[in-house]
Amino acid sequence: MLTGSIPLPAAASVPAPVVAAVPAATVSLAGALSIDWPVRVRTTANLNLRTGASTAYRILAQIPKGTSVPVSGRASNGWYKVSYNGYTGYVSDYYVVASTVRTLDDLNLRTGPSTSYRILLSIPKGKSVPAYARASNGWYKVSYAGYTGWVSGSYVTSYPKPPSAPQSTGPNRTSRVVLTFDDCPRTLSSFTSVVDYAASSNIGLVIAPTGDCLGSFKSRYGVDLAALARAKGQWVINHSVSHPDLRPLSCQQTGAQLGGSGVHTNFGRPPYGAIDGSVRCGYDSRGMAIWTWSRDTRDWDVKSKSITVSRASAALPGDTVLMHMQWYGFSPDALRQIKANLGARSVGVCRAYRGSDGTGAVVRTPVLLPSSLPC
Questions:
Q1: What would the CATH number be for the domain defined by 178-344?
Q2: Phi/psi zone of residue 2: left (φ > 0), alpha (ψ -120 to 50 degrees), beta?
Q3: One fold for both 24-97 and 99-157?
Q4: Which of the four CATH numbers 3.10.520.10, 3.40.50.720, 3.40.50.11460, 2.30.30.40 does domain 99-157 have?
Q5: Contact by Cβ (8 Å): 81, 36
Q6: Is 143 left (phi over 0), alpha (psi -120 to 50) or beta?
Q7: Beta-carbon neighbour count of residue 245 at 10 Å?
Q8: What is the distance between the alpha carbons of residues 274 and 244, in angstroms, rounded to a whole number?
């Protein structure tokens, strides 16, 4: 037994079953954001599996301490939806830990949960290792190469490995041009008109709103811009919460800027395209690949519709074109001109999403982008 270690949460007791007293509607299940929870979790105590996401719900079974179970969802209060022994129900997030964690750097495995403990060995960057417990200071108890010890929670993540894609052109592996728009639209009507037009004209845009933008439109209009764009066959990626230069931030601070009210997905664009090692670490920690651009219209600088259209129309096959929702490229007429100009040069634009087979009506895009866009 390790001495001087930081205590873990006490085991969860098993009270007598009770009839569910909380309506299911009080706890929503975020089934679409699968990137935000581990594929499997491991129990750190003997743990009740319940019919709903609180202790007011009936107990289905008890899951023994140390059991790894698959996760299919997460409720808004943090409880996980899991399956065990033929039952599907909910367990408290307080008594589980990700079954595996991935190292974000070469990382010391120590005999206890702090840097004062002896180093057993170094775990290479990018290794996924089984996790068994989490100390109150965030350190994880893991196993690697026959040793069991502790690693700092600051340098591991339970998020999946980011997709592999070229930084400047992302998951577009076709000869078509991807038109992308960052930041925030001026009005709801301007946003609606653009995504409606793009869907009707078979144009697949990539929208990169900030979390602050999403929050503002939800607060004012009750509208989720990301969901609205996806419903029209458009792709949505992360662009941070408040649009800071991420380079002065630590890996953890960058990761925080990519969560919260921001878009939760597997591709993201750093504000200003500013990238260094810490920024890369932050994106890796959230399971996001970085997607910048290969052609910049500088619409924010020229503030001219004709110049923006001209620069976007000069795109080469496979380009990712950068524009912004608050400037003049973000309008149905600008999109019409850009598509026509590119077409006159036999260059196509990415198409609105019609499912993986690319046929039929426009359908909702998935939250997670595929490794190859069906442009």
A1: 3.20.20.370
A2: beta
A3: yes
A4: 2.30.30.40
A5: no
A6: beta
A7: 12
A8: 10
- Class of residue 359 by CB neighbours under 10 A (exposed 0-12, middle 13-18, buried 19+): exposed
- Strand-pairing partners, residue 297, are none
87 forms bridges with which residues in the sheet?
84
Domain locations in the chain as residue ranges: 24-97, 99-157, 178-344
- What the block records as the tokens of 101 is 């964690």
CA distances from 107 to 116, 122, 151, 162 (A): 15, 5, 7, 19
pLDDT (tens digit per residue) in 38-54: 889 999 999 999 999 99
**Domain over 24-97 is classified CATH 2.30.30.40:** yes
What is the rounded average pLDDT of the residues 116-139?
Answer: 95
What is the reported pTM?
Answer: 0.86
Distances (CA, A) of 194 to 181, 308, 325, 367: 11, 16, 10, 20
pLDDT score of 18 more than 70: no
First to last CA, the chain: 56
- Cα separation of 247 and 270, whole Å? 10
Q: Which helix (H) or strand (E) holds 49?
A: strand 47-50
Residue among 299, 323, 326 nearest 216 (CA): 326
| Contact indicator for 304, 331 with CB cutoff of 8 Å | no
pLDDT in tens, 262-280: 999 999 999 999 999 999 9
What tokens were used for 205? 């845009």
